[in-house]
Design a protein that fits this description.
Blueprint lengths: L2 E5 L4 H12 L3 E6 L8 E6 L4 E2 L7 E6 L12 H25 L5 E7 L11 E2 L9 H14 L7 E7 L2 E2 L6 H9 L16 E2 H13 L4 E5 L7 H11 L11 H8 L4 H4 L3 E2 L2 H5 L9 H10 L1
Parallel strand pairs: 1-2, 1-5, 2-3, 5-6, 6-8, 7-12, 8-11, 9-10
Antiparallel strand pairs: 3-4
The structure holds NADP nicotinamide-adenine-dinucleotide phosphate.
NADP nicotinamide-adenine-dinucleotide phosphate binds next to helix 1, helix 2 and strand 6.
Length: 300
């Protein structure tokens, strides 16, 4: 039975992924800042103090690095930006330092990344994995995040980076933010509404991580449902499924900028990403269409 250590395994993706991997026969351990935060073997770490409980690495073959400050909970002040970056890169560096000494059994390092790699931009271009990173905040963050993952190649590990679209789950993540105005009967597009809004179902993102564990794949992979609709189309589909109106004028971009500052860009802009690479490796999506995904999330 292989042992998988998941950093940030208490979060939205990590908690579902841990369950999936456990039920698939893996031994699961979690790196967390809060002892007892999950039902699996918990190991403490402290990034500021350069500390990890060494026992975490004992017999571990695979590390999945999900840890990172949530990007959508606070305004992007310079301090928050620093925390968003360092909670991903400094943490990866700390795992690397310990892996050199205690990780003799390690084979694979799989890291989260985000489709923010390609930048907050609205275009008809469909971004594939060989595109360069954008120069905006998220693009630069993803670049450094992925570089910190690539460092594990120095230890001869197989490295996989999962460029993730916003995850749709029954609870947590972006769904509450999308549902609230619609449930209040205030459904409307945001900004122009023409920006693309790639999303992925929680089961599919967890299955992609499991696919990366079980298949000999390497490098970066986009992780989004193959069908990618505009903001207007996604929100209208939700309103229709909830039998709520979708008649109000768009939420103006300037209002979003006043409320959310620089972070508004990730809501106001968006392009599509190609899923050809992961599909060509043999991965099959359970929720390839947005309608099917929302039906499952809202009505089952
Ligand atoms: N969910 C999405 O829509 C989405 C989209 C694109 C990319 N991703 C990326 O995928 C990864 C997992 O996403 P998620 O939605 O599961 O995230 P999440 O729910 O916010 O959980 C992330 C976990 O990271 C740990 N963490 C938070 N702040 C930290 C800090 N300052 N230092 C160290 N650890 C910290 C926490 O675990 P403890 O409190 O137990 O330490 C937390 O449970 C993240 O890196 C995220 O950026 C997610």
């Amino acid at each position: 039975m292989k042992k998988i250590l998941i950093s940030g395994g208490t979060g939205l993706i990590g908690s579902s992924l841990a369950k999936l991997l456990k039920s698939s026969g893996y031994e699961v351990a979690i790196l967390t800042r809060r002892k007892g935060a999950s039902e699996y073997s918990n190991f403490l770490w402290n990034i500021e103090d350069n500390f990890i409980e060494e026992e975490a690495f004992k017999g571990t073959q695979i590390i999945i690095h999900l840890a990172g400050t949530n990007i959508g909970k606070r305004s992007w002040t310079p301090e928050v930006k620093q925390e968003i970056l360092q909670s991903r890169t400094k943490s990866a560096q700390l795992i690397f330092n310990y892996s050199k000494n205690c990780g003799k059994s390690l084979e694979t390092f799989i890291s989260a990344s985000a489709i923010g790699y390609y930048g907050a931009v609205t275009s008809d271009k469909i971004f594939s994995e060989d595109e360069p990173p954008a120069k905006d905040f998220l693009g630069s963050t993803c670049k450094l995040w992925e570089e910190s993952a690539d460092k594990f190649k120095e230890l001869s590990l197989r490295v996989v980076k999962i460029r993730t679209a916003p995850v749709i789950a029954k609870k947590g993540g972006i769904i509450d933010k999308l549902l609230l105005p619609i449930k209040l009967g205030l459904g409307s597009p945001v900004g122009s509404g023409r920006q693309y809004m790639p999303v992925i179902h929680i089961d599919d993102i967890c299955n992609i991580y499991k696919f990366a564990v079980t298949n000999d794949i390497e490098g970066a992979f986009n992780a989004s449902a193959p069908e990618q609709l505009t903001n207007r189309e996604v929100l209208r589909t939700i309103a229709k499924k909830l039998h709520r109106p979708f008649i109000f004028p768009s939420v103006p971009s300037f209002a979003m900028k006043i409320i959310f500052g620089e972070m508004a860009k990730i809501i106001l802009e968006g392009s599509r990403v190609s899923t050809t690479k992961i599909v060509s490796k043999g991965f099959r999506f359970s929720f390839d269409k947005v309608d099917k995904m929302l039906e499952n999330i809202l009505h089952t």
